[in-house]
Amino acid sequence: MPLDFRRLNICIFETEQELIRVGRERHEFLQKQSQDAALTLLLLRCCSLFRSMLSSLQRQELDAFDAVRRAYLETWHLAFQFRMPNLKGQAGRWLAGQSNSWSADIGTLEAYAKGRGLSVPDLGSDYGELSELAHPTRSAAENSAALILWRQGINQDGQTVEEAISALEKGMAGMIYRLLWLALDEDPTLVPLRLDDSKMPTALAFCAEFQASRTSNAPANPKTP
């Protein structure tokens, strides 16, 4: 799917509006000490981080993009985990700000997805590759140097940078789909969120198109990834 910045921003706006409504009406303006309130907060953070990803990609600031993308994936993983029942108090520990309460069990997420027959990326590798770029490793520093040389017009591998930008742009549809799926899926195995999807027409249409683009045989059902 071609990258449409305006459309993706509308998808995020619709999702934010519904999450804010749910937080206000059901979770005491997100002050309630509950798993549902924690989940809503994490999904709102995903929305905010995705906006930052879009803006940094538009400006071709790839170092910033990679750092925010890592934060987005971390937040999405935890939100995914918080949509599962039987957390054994993790949401309460997270709301209390306890250490190590913000790390999701990626193995559990992958097992859940496989149990439902969902097609998902290798979540561990997906996150691990970004972890190296978010820290002051040699590879991260070399990436930054290549970007600076490209901006100065003296990077002989400029085509490689441009190809990387193109690949990142193509990947943004999948990134926002993760968020929209997690917010909209009401499978009985998940903690219900009950957003009003009639107020999210752009997001619903995007999900349907994304699913159809993955396989010609995929049903256009935005609530089934």
Mean pLDDT: 86
Shape: globular
Distance between the termini: 16 Å
Compute the number of structural domains.
Answer: 1
Essential attributes:
225 residues; mainly alpha; 67% helix; disordered C terminus
Task: State the gist of this model.
The chain has 225 residues and is mostly helical. The chain has helices at residues 5-26, 35-58, 62-82, 90-95, 106-115, 123-134, 138-151, 158-184, 201-214. The chain is 67% helix and 0% strand.
Give a structural overview.
The protein is mainly alpha-helical. It contains nine helices and no strands. Helix 1 packs antiparallel against helix 2, helix 3 (62-82) runs parallel beside helix 8 (158-184) and helix 8 (158-184) packs across helix 9 (201-214). The longest helix has 27 residues, at 158-184. It is globular. The relative contact order is 0.15.
How would the blueprint of this fold be written?
Layout: H1 5-26, H2 35-58, H3 62-82, H4 90-95, H5 106-115, H6 123-134, H7 138-151, H8 158-184, H9 201-214
